[in-house]
Design goal:
Elements (H helix, E strand, L loop, with lengths): L2 E6 L8 H7 L8 E6 L6 E9 L2 H11 L3 E2 L2 E2 L1 E4 L71 H16 L2
Antiparallel strand pairs: 1-3, 1-6, 2-3, 4-5
Protein name: RNA recognition motif domain-containing protein
InterPro entries: Euk_RNA-bind_prot (IPR050502), Nucleotide-bd_a/b_plait_sf (IPR012677), RBD_domain_sf (IPR035979), RRM_dom (IPR000504)
Organism: Floridaenema aerugineum BLCC-F46
Length: 168
């Protein structure tokens, strides 16, 4: 099973697939690369993908080339997120997970006034919906779970709050 790796922080100048392939050539010959380019200008959009044969080879490349300086840019390499349905390679860059907001945001894209349904009526937004990094939580088990990176800090805050409410 092949593994796709996201290669970020590529320089915006002209880069072709062979140049990126040459960077990863020492990791093995069965590696394929793809540089994502802007459709209009043909310049690199700042990221690409490397496909390898297995997890061991992927981990080796991440360990060896993450931070590697390529044309004055330190590469960022990580396992690529799986594609979502209807998403092309150019849109497949790792995106932040959508956040859950407790209140809907008003549409602020009404440059021409009116109902805001002008040119963008049927187009999907590439941005995740929601108003930032806010998440709502409730006490039932079906609620959205907190981000595991902040779980220990959240637990500490809960304990402090409980201590404040029990001490008059």
């Amino acid at each position: 099973m092949s593994i796709r790796l996201y290669v970020g922080n590529l320089p915006k100048e002209e880069i072709d697939r062979q140049e990126l392939q040459a960077v990863f050539a020492e990791a093995g010959s069965n590696i394929s690369t793809k540089v994502i380019k802007d459709r209009k200008t043909g310049k690199c959009r700042g990221f690409g993908f490397v496909t390898v044969q297995n997890d061991e080879q992927a981990d080796e490349i991440i360990g060896k080339f993450n931070g590697f300086v390529f044309k004055d840019s330190a590469l960022k390499i990580e396992k690529a997120l799986p594609r979502t349905k209807g998403q092309s390679d150019e849109d497949a860059a790792p995106q932040q997970q959508p956040t859950v907001s407790s209140t809907p945001r008003p549409n602020t894209n009404n440059a021409g006034g009116g109902s805001g349904e002008g040119k963008r009526k049927n187009k999907k937004s590439r941005r995740p919906s929601g108003g930032g990094n806010t998440q709502t939580y409730s006490s039932n088990n079906d609620a959205v779970q907190p981000d595991p990176r902040w779980a220990s800090a959240l637990e500490e805050l809960k304990q402090r709050l409980a201590a404040q409410t029990t001490n008059p």
